[in-house]
Amino acid sequence: MASRKGGIDYSKWDKIDFGSDDDSDESNDERPRVTRLDEPSRVTRTRDGTVLVEPTKAKGGVHSAVARVGKAGDGGNEGSKVGLSVADTSGGAEPSATDQRHTKNGGRFTDAKTGFDVLWSQDREEVIVSVVFDSSLMPSKNVCVTVVGALPFADRKSAAGGGTEMDERGVGGRSRGFLVVTARTTDGEKIVLLQGDLPHFVHLAEDEEDGECEWEIEDPGWMGEGVVKRLARVTLHKAAPMHGVTVWWDQPLVHCPKIDVASIKGRPQGSMENAGQGDGKSQQQAMKEAWDEAHRMFREKVKARKKEPVHFPDKHD
């Protein structure tokens, strides 16, 4: 349509579409799309534009953790009627040099009964056992730790014998103590993180009662950014048969892998430092040698004492 000279040509406005954006094609690739994720996930975009969504909890393998506490000697988390999918704890990063304290004079392994990752360390006085768990599935406040059969503080230097009967747990035989670490999930199910008999005697702290122990929840920075795994750290106080004897543990629980205590750095090689190595006849021999050594040291100490005259007052004084 021709416009009038000097006027405005309005014909171009006839071609404008005043329709709503809601009427546009739903398949338009330029339109933003929103995807809601059901769980914490990692989202990446490849060069060809493909979007990959990977749940962060799916790292590593998965195992079924039981929603019950088993008795000593049973399969731990096996045989549960109700299972829970838990991320494999062995897939975490290795600890840095500054965090080797978790495995000093000990080690790291995956517990054969429960499937959870365990780290343990020791010095002359204590053994620290740490269990890795997912705090997004099992909140830290729901963790519970119990030690049964610990000796009173007064008996910490007189631990001897084959242990005490543990019939209250429904298990025959004798034990030097029993450790149980459990947690409840967000759904209220009870999970066994670690449980088993102790290889050596432990003693209570001065202000503790039977069943109590020192433990804490720690956030290990070396597990990786964004990882929700935590450590349940249990401190066990070593008991010894007498003063001057150091008991070096070769395993944190009797069903766990053993280490060679002879390889512990900085440990004197005398018999007084070998009292906790091995089991059966070898351990009895080491204990006998430690006992004999303690008596020898005592006799030398007595022999070295100087005689001092004692003056009694005269009866006439």
UniProtKB/TrEMBL annotation:
Protein species of origin: Trieres chinensis (Marine centric diatom)
InterPro entries reported in the protein's UniProt record: HSP20-like_chaperone
Annotated stretches, region: Disordered: 1-50, 69-108, 266-291
Entry protein name: CS domain-containing protein
Compositional bias ranges of the Acidic residues kind: 19-28
Record field: compositional bias (Basic and acidic residues): 29-48
Source organism superkingdom: Eukaryota
